[in-house]
Every structure is written in C-alpha cells, then in structure tokens.
Specification:
It is a single chain. This protein has one domain. With about 220 residues, the chain is mostly helical. It is built from nine helices and no strands. The two termini are about 45 Å apart. The protein is elongated. Helix 2 packs antiparallel against helix 3 and helix 5 runs antiparallel to helix 7.
Length: about 220
Amino acid sequence: MFEKNGLIYKFVKVAFEKQTYLNMLYLLFTFPLGTAYFVFLVTGLSLGFTLSIIWLGIPILILVFLAWWEIASFERQLAICFLNIEISPMAIESVQGKSILEKGILRLKNPVTWKALLFLFIKFPFGILSLIVSVVLISLSLSLLFVPLAYLLDAGIGIDSAGEAIMIFFLGVIISFFSLHAMNLLSYVTGKLAVMLLGSSLTSSLAGEKSDGGLIEETFREI
C-alpha cells in the first residue's frame, strides 16, 4: 500500500516535493501579472489604433509590439524556471547583423509573436481562475488544520470535544493533499499552454540553435 509506486505513496508525496510549492508560487503570481499584461495591452493597442489615423499611433503600436515580445520572453523563462518544463526558443533564425526593419519583419512573420499575444491575453482570465482556486483551497486546508489549535485556545469555533477537533484536523490533511494535486494540475495546464504558445513548433534539433528570445531572455540566460 505504501510502496514507492503505490497510489497512496503518490498521493502523499506531493506535499514533500519542491516542485509542488514552485507550482503554487507560479499560480499565485499569475493573477497580478496577467492583470498587468491585460491592462497594458488593451490600453496600448486601443490608443495606438485610435491615434493611427493621425500617424501618432504608429510609434505607440511599435512600442507595444516590442514590449509584448519581451513580456512573452519573460513569461517563457518564468514557466521554465518555476514549472520545470522545456520550451523551444521563440525564434530560431538569428537576427544578428540585420537592420531594425529586417528584425521587425522577421518578428511579424514569426507565428510565435501572435501566439505569445494570445497567451498574454489568456493569462488574465486564467489568473483570475488560479487566484480563486489557490486562495479557496489554501484557506480551506489551513482553516481545517488549525481547528485543534483553535479548540485548545477556546476560540469559540463551535467544536464540542477534542475528538471532533482531531477528526476535522485529519479531514484537513486529506483535503490539503487533494488541494496540492489540484494546483499541480492547474500548473500542468498552464505549462502546456506555455509550451504551445511561447515556443516555436520546429524540431528539437533546431531548438538547440541560437534563438532571438529578446532582452529579458538574454538576462535570464546570463543569470
């Protein structure tokens, strides 16, 4: 029953894995980051397209275009570091020696540019879902686990006996394990989206070549 490959072992070990808590941190950061991306992109794109009739919007759109590539590069590195997944480079073809116009054209033709924009927009509603799920599960688990302490302190929680408090505690332990598995599943879905939308679909052999991941990716690589 408690063998290494047993169901109970797999169910319990989630609480003792470092990756579980990295996943949890990633989910908790999803909401503020997703909200910031959404506000920036909606504001920048709306303002850019609105002012484009007087040509003032063109530089705004160019800046937003450059910014979302760097944000996507940051998100790619964040997913790699926190979710422990492999994502192919955002671009395979090197832009070294090319003019600014040529670099811009390459990025416009790169499907990852537009998939990354979709990912950044998806991150907002997914961030809301992640926040709700994480806060509800964590709050529920902790509230049940601390029932015995509240009983000892006579906090007036409506528990009549120590036996009842202990039963609720063990129920909290079980729910805590389920909560950690649920958050791992949510992180797994996020990771799959990141793999599909933040990396090129070329073969792994090409993925080993130098990529144009942006300034943020270069900073991560240096670290």
